[in-house]
Every structure is written in C-alpha cells, then in structure tokens.
Amino acid sequence: MKDVLDELAAARRKMGTATLPAGEAYTMELRRRYDAHLDDVWDAITSPERLSRWMKPVTGDLRLGGTFELDGGEHGEILRCEPPRLLRVSWMFGPGADEWPGTSEVEVRLSPGSAGDTEFELIHAAAVGEPMFPIYGPGAGGVGWDLHLLTLARFLGDGEVLDHEEFRASPDGHEFSRRSAAAWGEAHLAGGGEPDHVAAAVEATTAFYLPTGDASAGRAGQR
Description:
The protein has helices at residues 2-9, 38-46, 48-54, 133-136, 139-158, 164-169, 171-190, 195-209, 212-222, and strands at 12-20, 23-34, 58-60, 67-70, 75-82, 86-90, 104-112, 118-127. The chain is of the alpha+beta class.
C-alpha cells in the first residue's frame, strides 16, 4: 500500500483557469517526475501499442489534425503535437458530448530532468458550464487522472500493466481513490472554492469511486 500512496503523493495538484473555444474554463493540473528518459515517456503516451497497455486501446487517424477514440468512449481531435515535448487534444466523453464541442482539452508537457528523468505536466481544461463540475468539482476528472498516472508510473518502472477496474475494486484502490478525492478537494480550496461546495464535491466524488458502505466507513474512520 505504501508504494501506491507514495505515487499519489508524488504528484502536485492545482486548480486554475483557462480560455477555450467554448469560453472560460477551469483547469485540473498535475505535475510529477518520472524516473524514465524523455523519449521513453513520450513514446509511452503516443504509441498506440504502449498507450493501450497503461491507459486504454486507441484507434483513429493518429496525426496532427486527425481524430482519436479510446476504448472507454473518450474521443477528440489532435490539436498540437511537438515531439517529444508537447501534445494537446480536445477531450470529449459521454452522451451529448458532441453537442458542446470545444469544452474540454488535455495538454501534456514533458521536459528533461537533470538526471535522465522526465518532468511530466498534464493540464485538463474544461468549460465552467460543463455539467459535472457543480457536483464533483475537479475530482470529476482528477481522480481518474491520478489513477492513470499511477498506472503509467508502474508501466514505465517495470512494464507492469495495472488493471484499472481490478485495482479500483481492491482495498488499496479504495484508499487511493479516497485520498485522491481529498487531495483534489485541497486543490479546489486553494483555487478559491467555497468550503461548503468543496466538501460536498469531495463527498460526491468519493461516493462515485467507492461503494457506498466503504465510502461511509472511510469518512467515519477519518473523524
């Protein structure tokens, strides 16, 4: 369990603002270091074969201006690609997503570290009016990204492929999700969120990722 929580603690989270074609947006920002070479990290996030092993299978016209679709339904357009340092895509998900295009973008920035490692930064910008934010806050997408960055760390470290659903259902996965939701609540507060909204959003996010009984037990145990 310690190594899982160490991976969670390795990331720095921030909530900010941005402007998208759809208007003003909030951002979920994650920064961390990977003990892998820049070219290896770039290949892991852009190679369809490797991406499918730590994230999800991807199909589409995978070039600048082309489109992609992940096995889970996420899809979009490749807006910017500057190997091996920057990738930006539009990011749509769920029923009705195409009715409000331009409301979500994901950008990954890589830079070389001083010891052959890689500084990794992910920024997910979503329009303020998107429907999940009032309920879940930045945890709507933030917990999912924390899980993906954990699986990427395992994959880059020793090639291990972590099954998302199996991990989420495990005791370690429950604790990881609970702490991730709380960490995004802290970022939300630091970004100017109203305390009552933040508390409700953290509770809703925790309940979404954990079975009801387990989520309630976790909150009771933290009092």
